[in-house]
Design a protein that fits this description.
The complex is a heterodimer of chains A (458) and B (199). Chain A is of the alpha+beta class. Chain A is 21% helix and 38% strand. In chain A, the strands form two sheets. Chain A has an eight-stranded antiparallel β-barrel. A two-stranded parallel ribbon of chain A has the order 1-2. Residues 83-197 and 203-211 of chain A have low confidence and may be disordered. The termini of chain B are far apart. With 199 residues, chain B is mainly alpha-helical. Chain B folds into two domains: 2-101, RNA polymerase sigma factor, region 2, helix turn helix motif (Rna Polymerase Sigma Factor, Chain: A, Orthogonal Bundle); 103-198, Arc Repressor Mutant, subunit A (Orthogonal Bundle), CATH 1.10.10.10. The chains are: A alpha+beta (458), B mainly alpha (199). At the A-B interface, helix 1, helix 2, strand 9 and strand 10 of A face helix 2, helix 3, helix 4, helix 5 and helix 6 of B.
Chain lengths: 458, 199
């Protein structure tokens, strides 16, 4: 032992100060590579910026589109009800309106739908009952509120509820105040539809609004819908040791394998039984990706006369062609590698689920639960033997071709137009059957994704 | 005297800091200055771990690129030279691991009967250059373990982690590497003596 220490020490002292000259052209090569690296770095930055810009533009476009659809919807409804109501959409303001008058400015007929249009200017009521106001918005005269307390306008949408002034303090509820408040309330909301009688909770003269619930456009009563969605997914595996020995294979695989981030895409078909319940099916494509480290490759006899290299993973046993460039080896020999490896399993799922949705309004939330038949559509394993020497194998033993999984999703949807709905839903899926059969471990993949897509009723 | 040394140290530190900042800012003159300062020393390190000069040049190039790319992560808790050297050694280890398929797992029984020589003056018989050549001629795994343990001062546990082998294998490989090296030194020295007599 002492000899060894002496030997090491002497070796160290002998070659420690030894210097060699760096190769003559080394800096030139580095200089060129530094340029390339710099260019690649800038390119990556530019790509990121481009991707960010695209996302931003898409977001802007969708926001503009959404606003456009929404404005069109409101304008359409306003136009439909323009005649019976006192609303004037585009009449210019001719002169400052007179101050509030104690006289009623007009009557609101019970049963008339009353719509307001967007207007930002302060509103004043006209003193002439027959004359509509010039500000371009709806006016609710206090007299009509007084005379028709609790007047309710039958309409599908129940957007705003106003408390009418009580007869005792009718004077305090001046038309100006009423009108101004009305405009503030309705400028950003959906149609005004009902006026409630005064209650103890809502003092006279002060409008009380309920939270507006936008109504689903009429006519969306089709039973079938088709949709597409895309989901970023994370996956993990529950591994169950399948062997009777004392070695924990599951722990070993967990130690050297890691799931990668992936995507799934799907085509959905919905059939609605009624406003709340529907059946969902379709087809979903996912890819389960794993990164692993392979400590050893074993040389074994192949199916023919040749040899092959084999290694095991939790998702089956991989065998790949034997490369002639390896040193002469015999079956049973192994190569210590610690090679990087990536495995892709491409799956096709055919789901069948039941969906329940909260209401038939513009914004809904839903719960979806069911199962799916899972088919292995493709499998591939790539091993990086060297920095730029990769071998790909598509032969994986021990994988089942079919399996079953269960799924659960909770999401929210928004009706853009009649029949066009966007939705997003965190979705969980878990295999109930193992991906593998007859291997050291049973493998049950689980995934969690954020499905985002669009659904079209027809 | 003390204040002069202290002042010199400060100047050197400032220079180094300037160099590091220049490299972080990807300034070519700073990158070149760093290269000029450490190139020879680092090439020697790479050469010890490589099969041949070409291999050493590859490791050296890859190592320096890593230095430039990662210099912003240098925390100045140790010397810059030590940090660069570690990168070079790690690059050599990675290269070894990537090329491990080229080296069949060594059958240890081939070397079990090697004599354990106790000659103290064994190393006096050959030059540093010859010793370096002999080390480089060791089987790849032995060379890695020997270099990491004897020259870099790694522990067997660390070597085992880095190379993906067990601690026992690392110890056994080191022992075999020493034995092979001693035998080769003896042979080299004997050849040298014979040539001297013939001459």
């Amino acid at each position: 032992m002492k000899d060894n220490r002496e030997f090491d020490k002497e070796t160290r002292s002998k070659i420690g100060p030894e210097r060699m000259k760096a190769p003559a052209g080394a800096w030139k090569a580095l200089d060129a590579d530094l340029d390339k690296h710099r260019a690649a770095m800038l390119q990556r930055k530019a790509n990121r910026l481009r991707a960010f810009s695209i996302v931003l533009v898409l977001l802007l476009l969708s926001t503009v589109g959404w606003l456009w659809l929404r404005t069109g919807d409101i304008s359409q409804q306003a136009m439909q009800t323009d005649a019976p109501s006192t609303a004037h959409k585009s009449s210019p303001r001719q002169a400052p309106a007179p101050a509030a008058s104690a006289e009623p400015a007009g009557r609101l007929q019970s049963g008339n739908a009353h719509h307001a249009v967007a207007a930002r200017e302060p509103v004043a009521a006209s003193s002439d009952p027959a004359q509509p106001v010039q500000s371009g918005t709806a006016i609710i005269p206090p007299a009509s509120l007084t005379q028709n307390p609790g007047a309710s306008i039958p309409n599908k949408s129940q957007a705003i509820t106003l408390a009418a002034p009580s007869p005792e303090n009718n004077e305090t509820a001046s038309p100006v105040v009423q009108a101004g408040l009305m405009e503030e309330q309705v400028s950003y909301m959906m149609p005004l539809t009902s006026i409630a009688a005064p209650t103890p909770e809502s003092p006279a003269g002060l409008p009380v609004t309920s939270i507006p619930v936008p109504a689903l456009p009429e006519g969306s009563d089709s039973r079938f819908a088709i949709g597409v969605s895309l989901a970023p997914e994370i996956s993990w595996y529950h591994l169950k040791d399948n062997t009777a020995d004392n070695f924990d294979d599951a722990a070993m695989y967990h130690g050297r394998e890691e799931s990668d981030f992936s995507f799934s895409t799907s085509l959905q078909l919905h059939y609605s039984f009624n406003d709340r319940w529907s059946l969902v099916s379709g087809i979903r494509y996912t890819s389960l990706v794993k990164s692993m480290t392979i400590p050893h490759l074993v040389v074994e006899n192949g199916p023919g006369t040749g040899m092959q290299l084999a290694f095991t993973t939790s998702n089956g046993n991989v065998s790949m062609p034997f490369d002639d460039s390896y040193p002469s080896m015999l079956p049973g020999d192994s190569l210590a590698m610690n090679a990087a490896c990536k495995q892709w399993l491409r799956m096709i799922h055919v789901p069948l689920a039941v969906q329940w949705q909260s209401d038939n309004t513009r914004i809904n939330w839903h719960v979806k639960a069911g199962g799916s038949v899972d088919l292995v559509a493709g499998k591939k394993t790539t091993v990086w033997m060297d920095h730029d020497n990769a071998s790909t194998a598509s032969h994986i033993d021990g994988l089942r071709s079919t399996g079953f999984s269960m799924q659960l999703a909770v999401g929210i949807s928004y009706a853009l137009t009649d029949g066009l709905v966007i939705f997003t839903e965190p979705a969980f899926r878990r295999s109930v059957t193992s991906l593998t059969r007859g291997t050291a471990v049973n493998s049950y993949p689980s995934t969690l994704g954020l499905n985002t897509g669009i659904l079209f009723s027809f | 005297m003390r204040s002069i040394i202290s002042k010199d140290n400060h100047v050197a530190e400032d220079k180094e800091l300037k160099l590091i900042r220049g490299c972080i800012a990807w300034k070519r003159d700073a990158q070149n200055a760093l290269y000029e300062r450490y190139a020879d020393r680092m090439f020697t390190v790479c050469y010890r771990y490589s099969r041949n000069r070409e291999d050493a040049e590859d490791t050296f190039h890859e190592g320096f690129m890593k230095v430039y790319q990662n210099i912003k992560s240098f925390r100045r808790q140790g010397s810059l030279e030590g940090w660069i050297r570690r990168i070079m050694v790690r690059t050599a280890i990675e290269k070894f691991r990537r090329q491990a398929h080229l080296y069949a797992m060594s059958r240890l029984e081939d070397h079990h009967e090697l004599p354990h020589d106790a000659d103290h003056d064994l190393l006096d018989r050959i030059s540093a250059d010859e010793l370096l050549t002999l080390i480089r001629q060791l089987p790849p795994v032995y060379k890695m373990v020997f270099n990491l343990y004897v020259i870099e001062g790694y522990k067997h546990r660390e070597i085992a982690e880095q190379l993906g082998i067990t601690e026992g294998t690392s110890k056994s490989n080191l022992s075999d590497a020493r034995a092979i090296l001693k035998r080769k030194i003896k042979a080299e020295a004997a050849a040298g003596v014979a040539m001297y007599h013939e001459g």
